[in-house]
């Protein structure tokens, strides 16, 4: 058995997309070009608006925050809630009080099964 730490200190700062106080800690990268990691957004931080380079599943695991889609409508998310973005779909995310999200990205990522909408 091996133990690992996935704390924000083990990641790197997100400097793209006019992001503020956000860091990403990669969990792993598969041979199928799948990235899995944590997005750490500090209080009053954000990952600026950008288009998803591949399909992305974004699940809040700690704290709460917001996401915006192409319509710029802000939707609040809390721990246990998430969003799926298709490749090329524009979006941003942020938090007033701090938030950590599990991010899974892949060119072949299927949509989650049997999940209800939070809207």
From TrEMBL:
<dbReference type="Pfam" id="PF07883">
    <property type="entry name" value="Cupin_2"/>
</dbReference>
<dbReference type="InterPro" id="IPR014710">
    <property type="entry name" value="RmlC-like_jellyroll"/>
</dbReference>
<dbReference type="InterPro" id="IPR011051">
    <property type="entry name" value="RmlC_Cupin_sf"/>
</dbReference>
<protein>
    <submittedName>
        <fullName>Cupin</fullName>
    </submittedName>
</protein>
<dbReference type="InterPro" id="IPR013096">
    <property type="entry name" value="Cupin_2"/>
</dbReference>
<feature type="domain" description="Cupin type-2">
    <location>
        <begin position="38"/>
        <end position="99"/>
    </location>
</feature>
